[in-house]
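Hi V.,

You were right to ask for the full record rather than a summary. Here it is.
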Amino acid sequence: MKYHSKSIFLCLILGILLMGNACQSSIPSDPIMLLFTQPSPLIQAGKMIQLSSHDTTGGNNDRIPIKPGEKVHIANIKGEGMIARIWVTVDSRDPDYLRTILIRMYWDGEENPSVEVPLGDFFGSPFQYQHHLPKYVGMSSGGYYSYFPMPFKNGAVIEIENQGREEVYAFYYQINYYELEKNSLPKEIPYFHAQWKRDVRTESTENYVALDALGKGFFAGLNFNGQPYDGRLFYLEGDEMIFVDGEAKPSVYGTGMEDYFTAGWYFQNGPFAAGYHGLTFLDPETGRVTAYRHHIPDAIPFKNSIKVTFEHGHGNEEVVDLSTTAFWYQTEPHQKFNSIGVPGQRMVLKRPISSGVIAPNAFKVRTDLDFEIRDMTQNGPDWIGNEQLIVKGKDGASFSIILDQLEEAAYEIEIYYSKAPEFGTTEIGLNGKRLMELEALGTRLQAQDKIYLGEAKPNSQKEIVLDFRFMEGGSFGLDAVLLTPKRNFITDWYLIGPFPNLRVHDYERPGLDSAYFPEKEIHLDTTYPGYYGDQLAWFRVNDGKSGYDMRLRQYFEPTEFIVIYGLTYVFSPLDQQVIMFVGSDDAAKVFINDEEVYRFFDLMRIAAPDQDRVEVTLKKGWNKVLVKAENNFGGFAFYLRFMDPTNSLIVNAQQKFE
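Predicted structure:
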């Protein structure tokens, strides 16, 4: 039977004891208290009903199958109530089922769902089934569960859709809800919502947007997944920025992504599971991260709108595959969600393609064979721009890829390709030289890791030519080409330091712009006053290493909030303009022939080759190159090189032709 609404909150004994209040005869006005008091106030007013996949014939076949493309309603509830628990477990042969099975929820007969999320993302782990135990939604020893309270006034529908290519042979479920009298719930009760979003390649300079909602309600948290394209965790340097009610500056501004999940130092101690926050999965090899933060104790209210955003790396400088499931409550109506996309674009990234590659739509193809740029959208996110070059071959026929407008003296060349049943064996050559035979026949379409072809120099037309010859029938699928300049970093230096860089605050550090003795005069046999009054002398480092491989910290004490100098000389056979590349951790200056030609200033930066590109002048003869490098926290490194396509420059710290 149903219970009358007058009895709903006559005595919220258990719930109110938890909140530390006296017995009340009216429902709590705070929606968070109403929804999240435990045990639920509704135990005094509602009847608990369980829907399940139990065998109605009395047998033990307590499951339902779901065919490819089929939609199944596992709940179709009439009237008023609140869902208190959802449990499912799945048996599927589809390796991507965590992303190809969708869960949708509709409240009060609405046309557009309030919840639309891939199954694995909703329950918190799409990379793989991962046992983890948050308080409200997670995965436990083979099952998936949700205890998010989900109120409704005029019916509720929960729909499961199998968008995979394999049948789901067994889908088990239980749904527990309180059945209530009409008008039992408050007039403006906020409804549960969940939305999945993804940016498979964050190449924009804008923040990633996890939620952009209009209405009145509160943000209840999110599940998060990230995978970088270079395997590094530097994308965790990004901050959360949450904008409430149209504010220009975020009222919530974080200090780093792992900090948002209440961890620290790139999750230094690995996975953990707390009630409201945790690290579900961390793969140091790929940089994959799955984490959650559920804002139940610290829900973020909004009256008109909320926008939840994250940087992808400091200043949005990292390219990452980011996806989130945002949870929030709001009064209806809600904004219609954007399309969740085709199943192929929801699949987990299995083959990251490096930034800076040449994509298929930029290939210059030379052949008499038929070829096309094939749309790979349905096949997964492993193809850049969702494209693949397909060349239809025949025995002995060939095609070439022309790589032109090349500036550097030499390049290392790698290619990305795929295997498939219609592909065969292809011979690969480079600038007319045979390199290898590549077997691309596979039992199914599968993106392959990149393969290294070798080093090549551009011809007189500034071109490198990749040749492909079919050893038999079949086709060939080329996915991308990566050209990496053969970087000849300067590795012969005289070093001296450390000199003081005592900060007033983080962004007032006078050391970089203070002219110490090496900027005024160079005498390699002279000593200078150092950090603590000791005498500093120049010493030569010429071991063929650059950047972090130099291990600069081993030479200096102290190692933080200091500046050092590096001195070398570059011989040019003529007066010329050249391109100089610099990378630094942290700030740096470069002087050429006593003229400042480069300055980078920030508190922290992780060094990488060719971070900055500057055109500079070299005079005929020897040119003095002086680097001033600053270290604040942690790692310490710098890279410097000149573009030298004719190999005419000579580097020697002693100005000698050796």
